[in-house]
Amino acid sequence: MRRISILGATGSIGQSTIDLIRRDPDVYDVVALTGGCNAQLLAKDAKDLRAEVAVVDSADCYAELKDLLVGTGIEAACGAAAIADAARRPADWIMSAIVGAAGLPPGMAALEQGTTLALANKESLVTAGPLLMQTARTHGATILPVDSEHSAVFQALAGEDIAAVERIVITASGGAFRDWPLDRLKTATLAEASSHPNWAMGQRITIDSASMFNKALELIETKEFFGIDPDRIEAIVHPESLIHALVGFNDGALMAHVGPPDMRHAIGYALHWPDRKHLPVARLDLAQIGALTFRAPDEARWPALRLAREVMAAGGLMGVVFNAAKEAALDAFIAGRIGFMDMSGLVADALAKLSAQGGQHNAPLDLDTIMDIDRLTRLRVAESLENRG
Ligand code: NAD
Ligand code: MG
């Protein structure tokens, strides 16, 4: 039996992970499931999968969770510290699928027990790439990428020498607004930004796909995970979302990873790695698909891409500022306080205001420093929002 835990079990990635493990009930022994505040779903899955412990992130839903689990023998807990404790429970494989920087501390706790961490939470790498990789090395842990582009690159690199890689190309669908006239973008509503042409995902990453903040995070994620120079990383718009990434080698070959837009592929690859096992994803009919198309990303439409380049060039802890400012700007857009195109302005402003904190290259590589800069950035963005009225 493989002992597994899922952090962010009630979300889109968490539920796809559960879908896969439910198909092989005799293989997996579920240790911990954590969620936000959806106590009903968390309790149902914890009971179905006979988890040891279920944890919600907020006291608001703790009583409900406890009630739902009475008499089951499943422990209930709540709060960020309890989520990190759940990640410390011995497990062979842990899915990190909390959304946002909140996923970093439990991801770190998981690595410290030397486990295999399937990493969907891209914010961990953006904010703390060097710390995460170093922690994995120190504790003999393995990190496997779950973001579809990074899983695709990882697969294309199997058996290859990273020194022979000339470039990595990650694809972007272009999100909800790729074909909108530019001047209409500032009027985009929350509902319009929350629907994705190809992928079914959580709301936040769906909006980030429309703004390309998602791709911006993924450029940085590529740099941190594969240790490759930012000049060698490209993003290309590929509306069909069938090629997830390409790796270009020094002999001119481009290895592309092609597959249906279904996260269960990347999750399943990480679950079964280093083997491949049958996965319940659609098989592509290439003749029916007919054509795959590509276009260069337009930075006027997607300023987030330019900001990611600035962040990578600056290095230090600018990724922390970038991610925290992006999360705060996204909160403000979801709350109806700012327009869709105001998000990138707010993030650019935060990068300028926090360049001293983010630009530190000799800051201690620890979680406290990172979380302090994260908090400070959110505070500065809140002040900017207040000043806008
Ligand atoms: P989601 O919003 O559907 O789910 C997020 C999960 O985290 C839920 O269980 C939620 O309850 C929990 N959560 C939210 N805030 C929390 C907090 N403060 N503390 C503890 N738990 C909290 O998100 P998702 O789409 O499943 O994405 C999860 C992560 O995977 C994100 O980092 C995202 O960028 C990444 N990712 C998602 C996809 C996708 O297809 N959905 C693809 C690639 C990468
Ligand atoms: Mg992705």
UniProtKB/TrEMBL annotation:
Keywords: Isomerase, Isoprene biosynthesis, Magnesium, Manganese, Metal-binding, NADP, Oxidoreductase. It is an enzyme of class 1 (oxidoreductase). Residues 143-226 form the 1-deoxy-D-xylulose 5-phosphate reductoisomerase C-terminal domain. Residues 4-129 form the 1-deoxy-D-xylulose 5-phosphate reductoisomerase N-terminal domain. It holds the Pfam family DXP_redisom_C. One of its GO terms (molecular function) is manganese ion binding. NADPH binds at T10, G11, S12, I13, G36, N38, N121, E123, G202. Belongs to the DXR family. Transmembrane segments: none annotated. GO terms for biological process: isopentenyl diphosphate biosynthetic process, methylerythritol 4-phosphate pathway involved in terpenoid biosynthetic process. InterPro entries: DXP_reductoisomerase, DXP_reductoisomerase_C, DXP_reductoisomerase_N, DXPR_C, DXPR_C_sf, NAD(P)-bd_dom_sf. 1-deoxy-D-xylulose 5-phosphate binds at K122, S148, E149, S173, H196, S209, N214, K215, E218. Residues 259-378 form the DXP reductoisomerase C-terminal domain. The gene is dxr. Pathway: Isoprenoid biosynthesis; isopentenyl diphosphate biosynthesis via DXP pathway; isopentenyl diphosphate from 1-deoxy-D-xylulose 5-phosphate: step 1/6. This is 1-deoxy-D-xylulose 5-phosphate reductoisomerase. Catalyzes the NADPH-dependent rearrangement and reduction of 1-deoxy-D-xylulose-5-phosphate (DXP) to 2-C-methyl-D-erythritol 4-phosphate (MEP). It catalyses: 2-C-methyl-D-erythritol 4-phosphate + NADP(+) = 1-deoxy-D-xylulose 5-phosphate + NADPH + H(+).
